[in-house]
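Many introductory courses stop at the sequence. We go one step further.
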Amino acid sequence: MLAVRNIDLFYGAAQALRSVSLTAAVGRVTCLLGRNGVGKTSLLRAIVGLQPIASGSIALDGQDVSHLAPFDRARRGVAIVPQGREIFPLLTVNENLETGFAPVKRDLRKVPDEVFELFPVLQTMLRRRGGDLSGGQQQQLAIGRALTMRPRLLVLDEPTEGIQPSVIKDIGRAITFLRQRGDMAILLVEQYLEFAQELADDFAVMDRGEIVLSGARETFDAEAVRRHMTV
């Protein structure tokens, strides 16, 4: 579904990404690991179109989207759950979910039943404002909003950050369900090593703007990964 090839990305004179390559396949979870400040979020911003790349290419389903605007990538099935959730605090839960309708065809503008099956708490809070929810509930809402877009590539930026253990388990179960459904690729950025190790089919580790380790689950070396994640 996703093929990132040798991309470079700059913020002014500072180079954030150096010849980064990454793939994410349908029916699999690709986990991107690394310390704070090594370029993980910059890579996600490049993938969804929020930050232009200087060189290299980004392809979805074999089509180059390197220079498409974020809304065009969303129409092609790219949805992101950003770090910090970024829900609309003054909109209700239902209204937040409906913001995911923007890139989908009119006949699909209905919140999928699976959103409430995965996160039942959202159905009980449809009329509450997003800002009144707990951090864990807001994270579930952000994931539900992304699923409302009917994504083919779901990008999650540190969904366990600042979340209570019970909700982390709910998020893990949701990711497992979506993978087993087999109609989307999932790119998961994490610092919680155990969570990533449990879910990842493929992994990549970043350090100083580069991919320094990558492979399939069977080749995952927890000690080597931990060395690159230790400050």
